[in-house]
């Protein structure tokens, strides 16, 4: 019997690194040799992770990858949490890549659905962030990972700072399984401010021609918050945050939740809720939280990623944020998603469509966007057992073994932009499943996980419904004059209100006349800067005075 | 510019005239006046083709709040949500004055 | 319309097709005159842009406009484009003398319009969902009788606008197969090249990088809807943030602006060449 070698992967990796010795200086490869490097260390059919989420992109390496010779490198299996840049898809058109596992493709949603439909690309799965990260350790173990760092020292130690995000989870999956870790660096320094990823895990460093791309994704200008959003925010604070005594929360990206953040120091204060609700947050450092932080509403914030312009403010508020000894923030997307999935009382988000059963999706005709983290936040992990008042408030009285539930709240106006109804009988996602031949209908948050829907008309307490018919009636009651909402009738509404399944603003003691922009703690970006004592520095596109 | 007219058989008389809302893009102004005749709503709107939606918004409103009034609406492309907000705000003002 | 167009271009049309472009309103009632007139105007614009050393990252034509797009991207020569459009316009004119045309519906989704079209379409009164100009602006094409019935249903469904267009041909519908057949024979013998930039195809809204796709679009253009809205989505996803519209109009600039308010746009109709050069160079510098 021939002796089996148990170090084939290690030997293959050593051979690959030996093959590039002519362009390798320690761990460093010159910028101009990046293409040569990729052609040497990547094999056809390899599983390659390209770092890129909805904020941070390994943009130098992603721009280099399309330049490799498709004769040498082809049929790659790409693993990307976010497909954001044109070249992420160009490599499928040229044959360099064949298969894709991903989470979010919002900025490339038209092209990706075209490529799936015409067979240019094969899709593994459309994951949640956590599914994707977890599978890097199980059946999507990468051969090569391409990531980005702010600063790298001579030993290859990485400083990834406020935008550490998903770099650690990606690097670890390759570093300990004989994958090759390639890092693009904004800057090479003698000593990094702190070590976010030890040099021991890093194989190759390439100085980038320009800093990696970073998007200020979570910045919302208070100027654009409408009275309807303020009304919905007031209802949510009274009818959900206060009612369920919510302590820990994640807010999705959007103006609805930005409104709530700016109502806490004003409306929340009037209701005497300060110190009673939402001290602990898992959320990106969104600037609209500044007034709530400054007025003492918020005790702690852990973040998935950073936010452009918030660096200095965060550095001066280490009691609130997660900040290293060097004084800058550290984020971690994998831990953030884990917290969002498992540790929180409540998720509040928004969507483009909700069907008559309460399923919601941001996938609309011709666009396959994926959902990133929302399905993690917006689902009830049935294995957990919390003692918080919010979770316990869902535990049935009559069942001694009964479980509580996470609050999953969808906030939408009944009509979206273009005056198109948000409430529909059938989600466009059903159509998209057929067109793109997907295994699952791309639903973002399932009806069974959704506990509340808030619209400008009122709140539907879906968790209180006993049957699907009753759940549908509750949705119809708050769905306005959409085709779904028109099925509601006054008698049904009266019954649902009497039983507390639906609440209108008057049932919650919310006065619509108070839903004015003057109720917001900040009216515009300038106000946010003032609240921050000049520490917040808005990105140029949000500055009206520059 | 489109004009439409609606009637409703509602009987809860209002006591005073009220005016809410603003003349601005994406918004509307609503004027309620007491009447002892049939409830009447006159809508002037900048966006065409939404007569059915207007009818639905008004029916849903009067189903929930059967007031008897003469109502004038000048609309500048607001969504049904904003229309309903202004109508219900006008109602709140009426209740305050009682 | 053609007063500024260089004489050699107009002479070329005469040489290649025998058609003398008379450039007056009466002549433009004629499908051949108007199609060739617009084409040479666009070919002239392309020459102007080349003279100031501007080359596009992508080209997008709408219907007839794809031939200028194919010239601008280096796929087909001026001469062959003129000859092909001449045949296209001739064939279109003789296909449907009466009873056929197009209609436009504003305010309903494409899906909504397609549902109405399905209710009406029959062998006797054929009607099809055609061009997708924007999310809420869809064109239908087919028999006048069928179109009128769909327009009536659209009005009932609260469409903001549902009108019959002054077009005598059911363009961009399967009824135009005979024109495609003629163009297929015609283009079989023409030398074509891979595009030098991305070509956004009418027939499926995809970004195309090879000659086969462009050739298919030129042959079958009139049989398929123009997926203009998808073309613009794809352009934006490819990182394009600036558009330039050739003459004669500014319709497409309006569509782009209402879809992407941050886009920088230029219409050759409204701007002098040296101003265009100045702006494009300024934007390139960032």
From TrEMBL, chain A:
InterPro entries: MadA (IPR005777), NagB/RpiA_transferase-like (IPR037171). The lineage of its organism: Bacteria, Bacillati, Bacillota, Bacilli, Lactobacillales. It comes from the Bacteria. This is Malonate decarboxylase subunit alpha. Pfam families: Mal_decarbox_Al. GO terms for molecular function: transferase activity. It comes from Companilactobacillus crustorum. SUPFAM superfamilies: NagB/RpiA/CoA transferase-like.
Automatic annotation (TrEMBL), chain B:
Keywords: Cytoplasm, Phosphoprotein. InterPro entries: Mal_deCO2ase/Cit_lyase_ACP (IPR023439), Malonate_deCO2ase_dsu (IPR009662). The modification O-(phosphoribosyl dephospho-coenzyme A)serine is found at residue 25. The keyword Cytoplasm applies. Signal peptide: none annotated. Pfam families: ACP. It is found in: Cytoplasm. One of its GO terms (cellular component) is cytoplasm. Covalently binds the prosthetic group of malonate decarboxylase. NCBIfam families: malonate_delta. HAMAP family: Malonate_deCO2ase_dsu (MF_00710). This is Malonate decarboxylase acyl carrier protein.
TrEMBL record, chain C:
Pfam families: Acyl_transf_1. One of its GO terms (molecular function) is [acyl-carrier-protein] S-malonyltransferase activity. SMART domains: PKS_AT. One of its GO terms (biological process) is fatty acid biosynthetic process. It catalyses: holo-[ACP] + malonyl-CoA = malonyl-[ACP] + CoA. Gene3D superfamilies: Malonyl-CoA ACP transacylase, ACP-binding, Malonyl-Coenzyme A Acyl Carrier Protein, domain 2. Keywords: Acyltransferase, Transferase. GO terms for cellular component: cytosol. It is an enzyme of class 2 (transferase). Residues 5-270 form the Malonyl-CoA:ACP transacylase (MAT) domain. SUPFAM superfamilies: FabD/lysophospholipase-like (SSF52151), Probable ACP-binding domain of malonyl-CoA ACP transacylase (SSF55048). It comes from the Bacteria. Its EC number is 2.3.1.39. This is [acyl-carrier-protein] S-malonyltransferase. It comes from Companilactobacillus crustorum. The gene is fabD.
């Amino acid at each position: 019997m021939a002796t089996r070698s148990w170090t084939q992967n290690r030997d293959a990796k050593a051979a690959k690194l030996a093959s590039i010795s002519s362009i390798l200086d320690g761990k460093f490869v010159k910028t101009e040799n990046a293409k040569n490097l990729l052609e040497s260390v990547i094999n056809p059919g390899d599983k390659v992770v390209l770092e890129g989420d909805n904020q941070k992109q390994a943009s130098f390496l992603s721009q280099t990858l399309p330049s490799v010779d498709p004769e040498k490198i082809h049929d790659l299996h790409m693993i990307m949490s976010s497909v954001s840049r044109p070249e992420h898809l160009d490599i499928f058109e040229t044959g360099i890549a064949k298969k894709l596992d991903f989470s979010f493709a919002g900025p490339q949603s038209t092209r990706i659905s075209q490529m799936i439909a015409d067979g240019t690309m094969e899709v593994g799965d459309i994951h949640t962030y956590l599914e994707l990260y977890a599978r890097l350790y199980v059946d999507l173990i990468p051969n090569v990972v391409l990531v980005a760092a702010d600063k790298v020292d001579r030993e290859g130690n990485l400083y990834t700072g406020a935008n550490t995000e998903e770099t650690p989870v990606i690097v670890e999956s390759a570093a300990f399984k004989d994958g090759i870790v390639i890092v693009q660096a904004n800057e090479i320094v003698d000593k990094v401010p702190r070590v976010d990823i030890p040099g021991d895990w890093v194989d190759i460093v390439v100085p980038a021609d320009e800093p990696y791309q970073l998007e200020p994704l979570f910045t919302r200008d208070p100027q654009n918050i409408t009275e309807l959003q303020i009304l919905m925010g007031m209802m949510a604070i009274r009818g959900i945050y206060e009612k369920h005594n919510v302590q820990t929360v994640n807010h999705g990206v959007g103006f609805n939740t930005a409104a709530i953040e700016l109502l806490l120091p004003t409306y929340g204060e009037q209701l005497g809720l300060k110190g009673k609700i939402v001290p602990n947050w898992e959320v990106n450092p969104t600037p609209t939280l500044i007034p709530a932080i400054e007025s003492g509403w918020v005790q702690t914030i852990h973040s998935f990623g950073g936010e452009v312009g918030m660096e200095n403010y965060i550095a001066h508020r280490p009691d609130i944020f997660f900040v290293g000894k060097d004084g800058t923030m550290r984020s971690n997307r994998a831990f953030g998603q884990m917290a969002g999935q498992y540790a929180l009382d409540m998720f509040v988000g928004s969507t483009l469509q909700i069907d008559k059963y309460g399923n919601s999706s941001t996938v609309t005709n011709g666009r396959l966007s994926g959902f990133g983290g929302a399905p993690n936040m917006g689902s009830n992990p049935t294995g957990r057992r919390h003692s918080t008042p919010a979770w316990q408030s869902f535990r049935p009285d009559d069942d001694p073994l009964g479980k509580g539930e996470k609050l999953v709240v969808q906030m939408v106006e009944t009509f979206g932009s273009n005056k198109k109804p948000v409430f529909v009988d059938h989600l466009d996602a059903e159509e998209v499943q057929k067109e793109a031949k997907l295994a699952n209908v791309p639903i973002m948050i399932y009806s069974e996980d959704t506990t509340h829907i808030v619209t400008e008309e009122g709140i539907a307490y879906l968790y209180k419904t006993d049957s699907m018919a009753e759940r549908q009636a509750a949705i119809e009651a708050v769905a306005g004059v959409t085709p779904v909402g028109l099925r509601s009738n006054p008698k049904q509404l009266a019954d649902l209100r009497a039983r507390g399944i639906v609440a209108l603003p008057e049932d919650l003691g919310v006065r619509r006349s108070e839903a004015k922009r003057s109720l917001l703690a900040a009216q515009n970006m300038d106000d946010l800067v003032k609240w921050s004592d000049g520490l917040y520095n808005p990105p140029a596109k949000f500055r009206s005075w520059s | 510019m489109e004009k439409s007219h609606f009637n409703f058989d509602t009987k809860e008389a209002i006591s005073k005239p009220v005016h809410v809302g603003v003349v601005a893009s994406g918004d509307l102004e609503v004027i309620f006046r007491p009447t002892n005749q049939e409830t009447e709503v006159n809508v002037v709107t900048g966006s065409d083709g939404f007569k059915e939606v207007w009818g639905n918004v008004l029916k849903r409103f009067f189903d929930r709040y059967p007031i008897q009034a003469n109502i004038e609406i000048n609309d500048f492309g607001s969504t049904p949500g904003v229309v309903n907000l202004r109508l219900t705000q006008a109602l709140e003002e009426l209740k305050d004055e009682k | 319309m053609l007063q500024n167009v260089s004489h050699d271009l107009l002479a070329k049309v005469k040489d290649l097709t025998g058609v003398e472009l008379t450039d007056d309103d009466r002549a433009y009632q004629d499908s051949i005159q108007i199609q060739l007139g617009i084409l040479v105007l666009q070919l002239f614009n392309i020459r102007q842009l080349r003279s100031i050393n501007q080359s596009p990252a992508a080209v997008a034509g709408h219907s007839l406009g794809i031939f200028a797009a194919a010239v601008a991207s280096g796929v087909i020569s001026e001469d062959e484009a003129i000859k092909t459009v001449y045949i296209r316009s001739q064939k279109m004119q003789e296909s449907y003398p009466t009873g056929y045309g197009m209609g436009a519906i504003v305010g309903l989704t494409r899906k909504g319009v397609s549902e109405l079209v399905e209710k009406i379409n029959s062998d006797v009164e054929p009607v099809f969902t055609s061009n997708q100009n924007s999310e809420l602006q869809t064109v239908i094409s087919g028999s006048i009788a069928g179109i009128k019935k769909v327009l009536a249903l659209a009005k009932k469904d609260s469409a903001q606008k549902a009108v019959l267009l002054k077009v005598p041909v059911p363009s961009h519908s399967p009824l135009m197969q005979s024109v495609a057949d003629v163009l297929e024979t015609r283009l079989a013998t023409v030398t074509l090249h891979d595009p030098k930039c991305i070509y956004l195809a009418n027939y499926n809204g995809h970004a195309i990088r090879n000659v086969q796709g462009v050739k298919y679009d030129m042959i079958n253009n009139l049989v398929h809807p123009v997926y203009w809205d998808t073309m613009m989505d794809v352009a934006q996803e490819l990182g394009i943030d600036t558009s330039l519209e050739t003459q004669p109009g500014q319709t497409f600039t309006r569509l782009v602006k209402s879809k992407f308010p941050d886009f920088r746009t230029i219409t050759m109709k409204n701007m002098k060449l040296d101003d265009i050069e100045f702006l494009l160079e300024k934007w390139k510098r960032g």
